[in-house]
Write a structure and sequence with these properties.
It is a single chain. By secondary structure, this protein is mainly α. The protein has one domain (27-150): Four Helix Bundle (Hemerythrin (Met), subunit A) (Up-down Bundle), CATH 1.20.120. It contains five helices and two strands. It starts with a helix and ends in a 21-residue tail after the last helix.
């Protein structure tokens, strides 16, 4: 019985040590800063690694050609995927008229689509990377249309009865 009690205490202590913080998050960076310093740089770099562009010299393929470039693309996709989770932290969920209004769904889709890009880059599949990147882009555009575009000029006072631009 003494061994059983000691085992329970040890397992409980180990679980408590692994449980991490009690839900306190440091969200000093605003959602806008998170976008500017984490999500945008990773997403823009990632999109710059897929597809083609037309130049004076003809078609230029943007697909990674070295292991280092593929690894960078995979890392960028992972950053965007995890950033979707950061957008769900308390204090970052944006609300329109006091309701979540799709923020959670957009954030989860951001993670899902970025993981699809990560999988394509890990497989070194340029076509899938391009398609998954396009799906990721569409999620970003849809979210920005709802949560960013209406509030682009935050220096101007919002119109009367406009939804808040910051989480309560």
């Amino acid at each position: 019985m003494m061994r059983h009690a000691a085992l329970i205490v040890m397992v409980s202590a180990a679980l408590a040590a692994c449980s991490g913080p009690s839900g306190d998050f440091d969200t000093t960076l605003s959602t806008k800063q998170l976008m500017k310093h984490v999500i945008d740089p990773a997403a823009i770099a990632l999109w710059g690694r897929a597809g083609t562009i037309e130049t004076a010299n003809g078609t230029e393929y943007l697909t990674p050609t070295t292991e280092a470039d593929w690894d960078a693309a995979e890392n960028e996709a992972a950053i965007v995927a995890e950033a979707g989770n950061l957008l769900l932290l308390p204090g970052r969920v944006r609300k329109l008229s006091g309701v979540d209004g799709d923020w959670t769904a957009f954030s989860r889709r951001l993670t899902k689509e970025a993981l699809a890009v990560k999988n394509a880059t890990a497989a070194r599949d340029a076509d899938d990377m391009f398609k998954a990147g396009a799906d990721l882009y569409q999620v970003c555009v849809a979210c920005h249309e709802k949560y960013y575009v209406p509030f682009i000029n935050e220096d101007d006072p919002p119109p009367e009865n406009a939804p808040p631009t910051k989480s309560p």
